[in-house]
Amino acid sequence: MLDYKNRIMEIHVQLGISDNYASQHGLVLQWEETHLVDIGEDIFQRPQQLSEQASARWQVMKSQAKKDGVLLGVVSAFRSVDAQTKIIQKKLDQGQALTKILKINAAPGYSEHHTGCALDITTPGCAALSESFESTEAFDWLRENAREYSFLLSYPRKNSFGIAYEPWHWAYHEC
User: Fold this and answer.
1) Are the C-beta atoms of residues 111 and 27 closer than 8 Å to each other?
2) DSSP tally for the chain: helices H, then strands E
3) 59-117 pLDDT per residue, tens
4) In terms of pTM, does the model score above 0.85?
5) Domains recognised in the chain with CATH numbers
6) How far does Cα 171 stand from its chain's mean position?
7) Contacts of 32 (CB under 8 A, 6+ apart)
């Protein structure tokens, strides 16, 4: 546990993320899941994984949505601390401001994707990771039904975390 926290602190120093990031945004440290199961490929044909519990509920939820005529696709699922670090470093290397990046991407150690319980979801005909997802039947279906499967919208409009609105980001909350 201490090793993990120290690792996260070192990464934050390397990226220039302030010591008070978590308290400033009301985020809690997210543990990196190590027991993952395959859930198939995302919309880009990349293999994706979730925790065993989240995977089981995702499969049931996705199946029910399909029975209701709604197709749900995965943009991304589990993301390691290292992968999150690379995403942020790449954006920094491109000249993006850290404050802007951290409104879109949680700092390494604080992303729900580390837990293996979060999914970025899309549907056919909708651009991945787009606010336009909120105008789809898939989003309406999720708003009406996802709670039944213990999935919640993590970053609604004007959320207290300072993360941009992400209608596509849903997390299983029984992990």
Assistant:
1) no
2) 6, 6
3) 999 999 999 999 999 999 999 999 999 999 999 999 999 999 999 999 999 999 999 99
4) yes
5) 2-172 (3.30.1380.10)
6) 7
7) 4, 80, 81, 114, 115
